[in-house]
Design a protein that fits this description.
The structure is a homodimer. By secondary structure, chain A is mostly helical. Helix content of chain A is 73%, strand content 0%. In chain A, helix 6 (89-105) packs antiparallel against helix 10 (187-206). The first copy, chain A, binds a DNA duplex through residues 1-6, 9, 12, 33-35, 43-47, 49-51, 54-55.
Chain lengths: 208, 208
DNA sequence: ATTATCTATAGATCTATAGATAATGC
DNA sequence: ATTATCTATAGATCTATAGATAATGC
């Protein structure tokens, strides 16, 4: 035993973080033990401490890696170009809705969402990721996109209000279909709800 | 020592449940210990077991007591009467929004929301309260109210879609201002955001 | 020499129980 | 007799460390 030969080598560091995301998102940070984690990885507890200083260090590394979230991708959107290409602001919003659904539905994002929701207020104390700040960042990025859309459409609505009205239902539907769901998520129902939400939202947006 | 004289008697059962809501909402169920709980109540651990069979029994009793939530109050609303009294559907929705803010802002409701959000998917397994079912109940109650309003206003929108559009931002704002907040909540900002949300929502509702 | 594992264990903490003790209510 | 507490403790589990061992890379 002791150190395994190269052929059996696995990236234990990686495996620890993956298993930690699994366990922490299921049972919560306090609810998961180093023992369970070692078991899931397939090593002894002491081997975990070779890779990380402590249980908290594993959570920190995990959150650090999950990083600033995917809302960054919104910055890359050239709103006028895409709206023109899709021939309309409504189609543009539908695309955004659908894109978010696919992104959120990945197993990893589901686990991240559960962890963030579950540990929520406690995470800020760690100083790695502040969920409030994450939300506020995602919000202002979406507001930039909607602001440009509003300008293009010559809509009279306020960008901040539109952001609340657009994001709120999306987040609620995400929680309903992905975070709270027990079995495998019903993506068809999720997509349908998101589409209907965009239709409704567009009524308020487009009204002169 | 042993049993305290009547004059010092406190309702330990009550104190345990109150302290449990405190601790569970702060550190999560797994993160809170019977030792902390006993300490908070001011008795020995063994005294806790006189009142409850186990740690889980305390959580069960707590959830049982929190019961079906406050969404039940929506059933009592006579929509046509209140709309008539307030002279308009928009004022009616503003009142609903404001009422929810005051209700959600109570310390107890804040703790309940944190607990529900934090333990979220794990609670269903206990079989006392299923958060998904709670949400779905609250949803259909709100849908009844909005459906009646839609009929009164002769709005062409679908009641289910309107419910998503109305509740989504409210829940998001609640999470932002009350659940995630660290210090004391800024109720003024919360109310302002809710008012603006109702204004925006009304655009979509009232458009013919 | 360094890296990654193991065995073994320390020491803290946790849930829960046994049995003693004193107040209460009949 | 019943109820509500206490002291004391069992036994499980948890985080973390010490020290041995074997593979790797120089």
């Amino acid at each position: 035993m002791a150190r395994p030969p190269k052929t059996d080598a696995k990236d234990t560091h990686r495996l620890i973080l993956d298993a930690a995301l699994d366990l922490f998102s299921q049972g919560g940070y306090a609810g998961a033990s180093m023992r369970q984690l070692a078991r899931a990885v397939g090593v002894r507890e002491s081997a975990l401490y070779h890779h990380f200083e402590s249980k908290e260090a594993i959570l920190r590394a995990l959150l650090d890696e999950l990083g600033p979230g995917q809302s960054r991708q919104l910055d890359a959107i050239d709103v006028p170009a895409v709206v023109k290409q899709l021939k309309g602001g409504k189609a543009f919003l539908k695309l955004i809705g659908r894109t978010l659904v696919e992104l959120w539905a990945t197993p990893k994002e589901q686990k991240i969402a559960r962890l963030m929701m579950g540990e929520g207020p406690r995470l800020a104390a760690l100083g790695v990721i502040d969920p409030r700040q994450e939300i506020s960042l995602a919000r202002s990025r979406m507001q930039r996109v909607l602001g440009e859309l509003i300008r293009l459409e010559k809509s009279p609505v306020d960008a901040a209000d539109a952001t609340t009205a657009f994001m709120g239902p999306l987040i609620m539907l995400r929680a309903l279909h992905l975070v709270m769901a027990s079995g495998p998520p019903d993506l068809g129902a999720f997509r349908r709800d998101v589409d209907r939400h965009v239709d409704f939202f567009w009524r308020a947006m487009s009204k002169t």
